[in-house]
Amino acid sequence: MSYRFPDTFLWGGAIAANQVEGAHLTDGKGLSTSDIQPYGAFGELAERQPNDFNIKDVAIDFYHRYPEDIALFAEMGFTTLRLSIAWSRIFPNGDDAEPNEAGLAYYDKIFTELEKHNITPLVTLSHYEMPLNLAKQYQGWASRETIGFFATYARVVFQRFGHRVKHWLTFNEINVTLHEPFTGSGLPRDCDEQTRFQAIHHQLVASAKAVKLCHDMVPEGKIGNMILGAMLYPLTCHPDDMLKTLTQNREWLMFGDIQARGYYPSYMTRKFTEMGVTLNITEDDKQALKETIDFVSFSYYMTGCASADPEQQDKADANMLQMIANPHLKASEWGWQIDPKGLRYLLNFLYDRYQLPLFVVENGLGAVDVVDEQGAIQDDYRIQYLNDHLYQLGEAIQDGVDVMGYTSWGPIDLVSAGTAQMSKRYGFIYVDRDNQGHGSLKRTPKKSFYWYQSVIGSQGETLTEPQS
């Protein structure tokens, strides 16, 4: 049965500065934490050396090629583009007295180009990067001082762009510090739980302060959080598995609970006690957290299972997460289990929990694409993946869930966050560059480009019912 999405539904894609821009020291930009992760979020850190290679230094050169790329997004029919601002372009060291005007001017040009094509920007303030100096000199988010540096950055950005950007997010996948503390908070990978959760607390307070700044400075704007949607199912219906699943899901739901409700959930009291964690939470912190988000956004790539059985070893390759494989699901080339119905389930679950508008801001399939003899890319596997997920998103809207929009991850091929590969491609647009940095950077629309164009043009009516 065909379904027409609401006319207000926002269609688009999502990119991140450190994965597309390149120009890593151009126009006064400082080094970021991402710049010393040459092998991605899961690899080893590396101090910068002269003439060393980091594929993200150029990435796909969006910094210089953005007019071409945005024109291609417009050709697909995008009504929104999720992008991030590189914090170290605005404050190269994080603690600078004044912002870098060249960095601000660059994003002015980006927003002008989006306006030319009637594409609404959805801007993330911090997407898996922060000024490296803050990680080195202040221990990243372990320091309470970093809250003030982030607030200063947010204030400058809202003042400069608030008249043209009305949709904002604070931190990308804010719960990632649980799994990759350097990527999420600039912390050493071997940090203890006390340090990790204190840093998380500082980040949550900073997020809330940014929400208040946005409400005060961009009164007609909307600002949301962004969490890694890591829904787990119980492996069996045994009560122990049910309780284990509840506990593990709360590990990431805590972030949404605090940002949507304005206080720590009661279940965290026991968890902190069991971990031996005592947070330094001031009265000002408690007051700041009361400023809650306008909508909940999240990434969705997979689900997994939880089990109380310590002998259960059938693990799924779940990016940064610890998940047990679901025996009823197939997996991608990278081992990520594919569960379109899980998106419908998660949307209903989150809407029941928060009663706030939801925004699916990342979803996509990483795959090896082959260019055929005619120079085309026949990515039917990607079309099927996205069709099936969007169909279930439509089902959730019909269930009564308020969904603002959908931005597929990586509408143009970009550098993988986890592994810094180009070969793990998500895009509707092929970029001629390999893992060693070779290639012309030429852009070529894939078969999925024209498929997504038709989906947007029909407001979803061309989606087909998944084959179960």
From TrEMBL:
Residues of the active site: 362 (nucleophile)
Gene3D superfamilies, A to Z: Glycosidases
Pfam families named among the record's database cross-references: Glyco_hydro_1 (PF00232)
UniProtKB keywords: Glycosidase, Hydrolase
InterPro entries: GH (IPR017853), GH_1_N_CS (IPR033132), Glyco_hydro_1 (IPR001360), Glyco_hydro_1_AS (IPR018120)
Annotated EC: 3.2.1.-
Top-level taxon in the UniProt lineage: Bacteria
Molecular functions (GO terms): hydrolase activity, acting on glycosyl bonds
Coiled coil: none
Family: Belongs to the glycosyl hydrolase 1 family.
This protein's name: Glycoside hydrolase family 1 protein
Organism annotation: Vibrio olivae
